[in-house]
Amino acid sequence: MTKNSRLTIGSEEWCTLPELGIPAIKARVDSGAKTSSIHAFNIQTFRRKGASWVSFEVHPLQNNRRVSIRCERPVVDKRIVKSSSGISETRYVVVTRIKLGPETWDIELTLANRDSMGYRMLLGREAMSGRMMIDPGSSFCQGVVDKERLREVYGERRVEHSGLQIAVLASNPELYSNQRILEAGEERGHTMRFLDIKQCYMKLDADNPEVHYRGGMVLDELDAVITRIRPSLTFYGCALARQFESMGVLTINSSAAVTQSRDKLFSLQLMLKSGISIPTTGFANSPMDTNDLIDMVGGAPLIVKLLEGTQGRGVVLAETRKAADSVINAFKSLRANLLVQEFIREAGGKDLRCFVIDGKVVATIERTAAPGEFRANLHRGGSASIVKISTEERALALRATRVLGLKVAGVDIIRSNNGPLLLEVNSSPGLEGVESATGKDIASRMILAIEKKLGWKRSLGKPVKDGVGKAAFPRTSS
Hints:
The chain has 478 residues and is of the alpha+beta class. Helices cover 23% and strands 35% of the residues. Mean pLDDT is 85; it is low at 460-478.
């Protein structure tokens, strides 16, 4: 192909992947990336006629997790790829046909979870080399696929809400985790609604307890409530959860379990009573003898924590005794309750987040602290990757959730020279980090746990309409 005959493309283009059954997917054109990639989740390898294959699911449309296509391709390679955020990960590589404008050819695609990215597909320079010229100031040089066409090729999706009535009791309807749970419930045919904690109020009555929502709506038909209560609203959120429980509504997690998990001191005492190892910890309310408190945990360096801190806020590393004394005295001046905890140097700024649902560890990621930080925290620039945990670490995560009575929890564990140690248990764990790193649909597993508890069985519906490829069979319930 001569230079003059090369296809001109813009910074984004619509493509077709016929062998994957994907009739339309918007790709980001990126000459800075060597390899092309596609958003994939639920990635599973298997053997077929002695060869290695991989199955995976794709959400081909941006900001749409309702359209899902299952794909299978032979594995041609496993490759270490560094993402734009600087994180290296091992990805499966497949080869498939691509159609862009009038051209059709084979390309390599790496499978990666791009749920948090703006585009479901990235077209790298290897796929374009010798074939295309990029006009970075233009878009869709090879044509636009409008909404009508997308509805035509992917089919009208119709969900019949014949399932359960489930509410998410939280504060921010736009939060990734809350959105994912609402979508997952709708996917399985349930009627989902978001309840803002601050907009709920209750009627205390022995014979007829009620919860009302803004405008006077009585919430009396709910089957289950998923409690995702932010720390600052623990008292009122748990009061609402207790009210729902008195009405016979299933709560995941229960008010008692959330209350216990939010009291850091009490929860650590419960862990120790149950034989669960934690870093050596001291507690004080404005101690007079700061030096003795520091010595309790083996001296500096040490960690100072506010009991009310969340998501890494209110946690300070004191590297010297002088620094520890200054930080503790500063917290004392605020009349704040604080914990001091030994610093596990060998952890190297890493910890494990085990996601537990209904007595099973369904996913685990290793979180690494951002440069300059001492503690792994995804809210402060940290990174996450898939990790395999030991039998001992799995048992610790499960025992910790049982002690607190939680059905859904994020259990944070740190690896030390003396074995795994529990850091804390989060009763409202975020889904974005674990879903992005593992490619697993954690939100759907939460809904499945509710179905199991209530003895509800899903009835699979028929395809809504025939379309192109495997998108002709959108998931519905009847």
